[in-house]
């Protein structure tokens, strides 16, 4: 069945909708028609096998797949999605799952789906998600789905940002907060992993109890166990009294383990036992204590690479990696840069009792175009420095240059290999091929694990491998 959009301005692309529920499929089709400024041609099919038949003969740019409708394609959701990815030839794939099927949705993403959305499906959210995926995965401009006007949240539980990436993050936090399952937060330094952990606690059923954070990278290894699990008097020199650890202090609430990848391997085994049994023993104590906490952890490192390097236990990772949340770097959401800048400017101007009239256009362009390797924290520090250094008025590009210490340091200390020592440079596609094939070999041929380590989707690897084969055949 083919559904035609009500818009006369059709998008140059094809969308395959897989859903056995005809009413739900119609609702999604109507939602797209109502919320998109431009709309693709939508083809709807009721199951996985029918979709596979279509994909063998027709190319689609976007696939929206209800996971329950794929049961006739393979024995499991992951296997069904894996087959779909192989046939899709690089299409953007968005999985649709029931609100209680988070694990199935995560399985679909491990198999190659680019993202998932929970039922009931909001047209505005769906359109925004498709736009974000198209932009994130480098689709041609003609395939970018543009969403019409919709209400956005610019300030949420400590986060500031109105981009579609942040709207998705806010939605994730709402969904995940209600659960008691462990959460694994990843993201570059300065993206707000601690803010995310506090938001999950504040929006969840444990909000009235304690939130206890412990930085695994900031505590010496020989003290880490007592900080986490507590100590009894006389257990070692300096232990003058019984003391509760972070886990016990958080009983009934939330325990946040920041930079969990820095934890010593021997302590990782004790953390795993705690997660499995729900009990702890203080250092120097033989008895066990029952503890009820929700565990949230975070790292700015690649967990799959840490596992490959034997710095992180694989069994602990899968015990913690139940509900993953990834925080996007600031360079991937440039529309939020000025939102954040104005927020910090108002905040610090009030603290310093100064008045600023705004931000010049040239200065705004400079800020938006920056890479921000330190993410939101770097921008926050820059704005605070501006407020301290200058008395007020309009923020200009020269004022930003004067306050931007990080960029000046990077420019003054370029890292450049001597000309005589430079190796010959391979074409980009050959370097990319080498990186991807090395990753696949590192994980024994497991494309899903290699994709997770490289922070790309398995479908991207399949698509690139096909392209390399065609290039080799042509040569």
UniProtKB/TrEMBL annotation:
A single GO BP: phosphorelay signal transduction system
Residues of the Response regulatory domain: 14-134
Protein name (record): Sigma-54 dependent transcriptional regulator
Chain positions with 4-aspartylphosphate modification: 66
InterPro entries in alphabetical order: AAA+_ATPase, AAA_lid_NorR, CheY-like_superfamily, Homeodomain-like_sf, HTH_Fis, P-loop_NTPase, Sig_transdc_resp-reg_receiver, Sigma_54_int
Stored Pfam families: AAA_lid_14, HTH_8, Sigma54_activat
Residue span(s) of domain Sigma-54 factor interaction: 159-388
Disulfide bond as UniProt keyword: no
Keywords, comma-separated and alphabetical: Activator, ATP-binding, DNA-binding, Nucleotide-binding, Phosphoprotein, Transcription, Transcription regulation, Two-component regulatory system
One Gene Ontology molecular-function label: sequence-specific DNA binding
Coiled-coil regions listed: none
